[in-house]
Design a protein that fits this description.
Number of domains: 1
Distance between the termini: 43 Å
Shape: rod-shaped
CATH class: Mainly Alpha
Number of helices: 3
Largest sheet: 2 strands, antiparallel
Radius of gyration: 34 Å
Strand order of the largest sheet: 1-2
C-alpha cells in the first residue's frame, strides 16, 4: 500500500507522464511499422499474382513443347541449361527491427544464347516455357525476401500493440486511480487542517 504523501503524489504524476510519453512513442513506431508493412505487402501481392499467371502460361507452353520436341529432347536441353545460382542471406533493419533479406547477384532470366544449348533447333514454345520458369524462379526469390520481412513486421506490430494495450488499459488507469486517491486524501487533510485552524482562531478571538 503506497503512502498518501505529497512526495509519492509527485512521483506518481511523473511516472504517469512518462507512461503517456512511452505510449506516444510506441504508437508512432507502430504507425511507421504498419505503413512499411503496407508498402511491402502490395508488391508481395502483385508478385504472387504474377507467378500464378506466368506458371499457367509456362505449363501450357511446356505441354506444346512436349508434343513438338519430345520428352527426351527436352530433358537433354534441361540438363544443358542447368546452372547454379548464388543466393546471399543478409540482415537488414527497419525502425530498429532486424530481418533477413534474400539477395541474388545475378538475374534468373537469361537470353536464349546464354542457356548452353542451340536455341535455333528448338521451337518458340520451348523458349517461352523456359523463359516463364526462369521468371518464376526470379519472382520466388523476391517472394522469399518479402515473406521474411512481412513476418517480422507483422510480429513486431502485434508485439507493439500488446505493449500499448497494457499501458493504456492497465498501467495508466492504475496510476491515475492512485493519483486520484492520494489527491483526495490530501485534499481532505487540508480541509480538516483548515477547519481545525478556523475553530482554533475562533476560540482564541472569543
Amino acid at each position: 500500500m503506497i503512502q498518501h504523501t505529497r512526495t509519492n503524489l509527485l512521483l506518481l504524476k511523473e511516472k504517469s507522464r512518462s507512461v503517456e510519453d512511452s505510449m506516444g512513442i510506441l504508437k508512432a513506431r507502430r504507425q511507421a511499422l504498419i505503413q512499411e508493412f503496407l508498402n511491402t505487402a502490395m508488391p508481395f501481392i502483385r508478385s504472387r499474382d504474377e507467378i500464378r499467371n506466368i506458371y499457367g502460361k509456362a505449363i501450357e507452353e511446356l505441354s506444346l513443347s512436349l508434343g513438338y520436341e519430345g520428352k527426351d529432347n527436352i530433358e537433354s536441353i534441361t540438363f544443358a541449361a542447368k546452372r547454379d545460382m548464388s543466393v546471399e542471406i543478409t540482415e537488414r533493419s527497419i525502425w530498429g527491427l532486424r530481418y533477413r533479406d534474400v539477395v541474388t547477384h545475378e538475374t534468373a532470366v537469361r537470353m536464349p544464347d546464354e542457356r548452353g544449348y542451340d536455341y535455333f533447333s528448338t521451337t518458340p514454345h520451348l523458349e517461352e516455357c523456359i523463359n516463364g520458369f526462369e521468371r518464376i524462379l526470379e519472382s520466388m526469390l523476391e517472394l522469399a525476401a518479402f515473406e521474411s520481412k512481412l513476418k517480422r513486421l507483422g510480429d513486431e506490430i502485434l508485439k507493439t500493440t500488446r505493449k500499448i494495450r497494457v499501458l493504456e488499459e492497465r498501467v495508466l488507469p492504475d496510476l491515475k486511480n492512485k493519483i486520484k486517491a492520494i489527491s483526495q486524501y490530501l485534499g481532505e487533510r487540508e480541509r480538516e487542517s483548515y477547519y481545525r485552524l478556523k475553530v482554533f482562531k475562533n476560540r482564541n478571538s472569543g
